[in-house]
Amino acid sequence: MFANGDFSIPMLVHDQTPPGADEMKARRDKMTFSFESLPAGGRVAIKTTDGRAREALHEFLRFQIREHKTGDPLQPK
Q: Which one of 29, 39, 43, 61 has the lowest number of neighbouring Cβ atoms within 10 Å?
C-alpha cells in the first residue's frame, strides 16, 4: 500500500494521521519502497534523496516506534 502512496492504515490503527504521513503522500514520487522476505517476517527498504521526504519518513517512523513501543532507536543510523 505504501508503494502506491496509500498511507491510511496507520491512521486507522492510531485514530490519527501520524506525523509525516501527509508529506510522505505529497512526495511519494520522490520515494521508492521495496520488500524483502525474511525467515521471521520481512524488511521494507525506503529510499529517497529528497530531504523533506526523508524528514517526513523519519517523523513517521519515530511515531510508529513510540506508539508500538518497539524499543528501536529514534535516530536514524
A: 39
d(CA 72, CA 77): 11
- Give this prediction's pTM: 0.75
Distance in angstroms (rounded) separating the CA atoms of residues 66 and 46: 19
Q: Looking at the 3D structure of the chain, how many domains does it have?
A: 1
The three three-digit cell numbers of residue 4, written as one number = 502506491
> What nine digits make up the cell of 8?
491510511
d(CA 53, CA 70) in angstroms, rounded, equals: 23
pLDDT digits (tens, 9 = 90+) for 4-45: 777 666 666 667 888 999 999 899 999 999 999 999 999 999
Contact 1, 31 (CB under 8 A): no
